Amino acid sequence: MLLEHCGHARYVWNLAVEQHRHWKPGRRSAPGFAEQCRQLTQARAENGWLRAGSIIVQQQALKDFAQAMANSFGGTHRRPTWRRRGQGEGFRIVAVKSGDVRRLTRRVGEVKIPKVGWVRFRWSRAVPEGVKSYRVTQDTAGRWHVAFAAIPEPIPAPAAGEVVGVDRGVAVSAALSTGELLHTPALRDPEKARLLRLLRRLARAERGSKRRGRVKVAVARLKARERDRRKDWVEKTSTDLARRFGVIAVEDLKIANMTRSARGSIDAPGRNVRQKAGLNRGILANGWGRLVARLEHKAPGRVVKINLAYTSQRCSACGIVDRQARESQAAFRCRSCGYAANADVNAARNIAHAAGHAVSARGGPPLGEPMNREPQRDLLLVR
């Protein structure tokens, strides 16, 4: 029944996408949420298999599509597209009553789903009071999840109000201006070897066969394990940073542009495509975007985005910009003052200094510790 709810929600969503694909501005108005609900009532009257499903699930799929279109027109998200079976499966339930969610034991709870009844789930955290909706989803590994919609309270800033700079990288996931080097947990070596064997087996399996389906599920479970570890690391790291520091400075990175494919086209093929693909996987595996997004959720108004120009080439001690000061990926040595440090930590300290100047320029209080040097004009050393 849960899969049927997912299929009905996917079917209604794809119908809404098809309607807006044929709509052209200036010719006729695209159907809105109210008109689509009237069309849904007519479709349910004509199709018994659709009428057998939950009207709440199907209407909320239309509601989600209307919100997706509003986000697209607002420029915050891309235009909604088709949903495929097995990818992004889920549905949403609204108007949750107080008795629709109950706790059985310390680790087990139950939620009431229309047309299904009571469904047990593992009580991993407390359900907030006044929850009005929840979403049931199935990931690619076949696991079911239920998420209750609630806006958590932001983490209060510490009294000290220290500024910290965060430099995100591939070899080091996050380097702090305090000298700390943070790494995203990945698959262990035996797990990587097993994933490689499964991918080879998947390449040899016949399309549409049961063997291929089993191998795809095994691959999805390994990748889900890696994804869960990355999300857990992001949550713990963002909470720790929000509790310890008053202002968190990060580079203003355009991750979508940085991870764009270099394959090119037939007429203009790209260069170093395999190397660029590996770099893209490394960037996405370190959770750059999710870390900053969770920091903005937990510490609203305390995340400062800094221009990334010359942060990795500037000496954090004297301010001289020298492209040859970075001897390797991890080593930075200034040829002017002799300052030596980890290259990522040096970049993080430059980010923290820039954040302190940016806040002071806006007329705010002097956040963080003052710099122990006078501002100097940046010099570019060239051969």
UniProtKB/TrEMBL annotation:
Highest taxon of the lineage: Bacteria
Sequence ranges assigned to domain Cas12f1-like TNB in this UniProt record: 288-351
InterPro entries per the UniProt record, alphabetical: Cas12f1-like_TNB, Transposase
Transmembrane segments: none
A molecular-function term among this protein's GO annotations: DNA binding
The Probable transposase IS891/IS1136/IS1341 domain, residue ranges: 151-261
A Pfam family: Cas12f1-like_TNB
Keywords, comma-separated and alphabetical: DNA recombination, DNA-binding, Transposition
Region (Disordered): 361-383
One GO term (biological process): transposition
Family membership: In the C-terminal section; belongs to the transposase 35 family.
The name this protein goes by in its record: Transposase
Species of the source: Nonomuraea glycinis
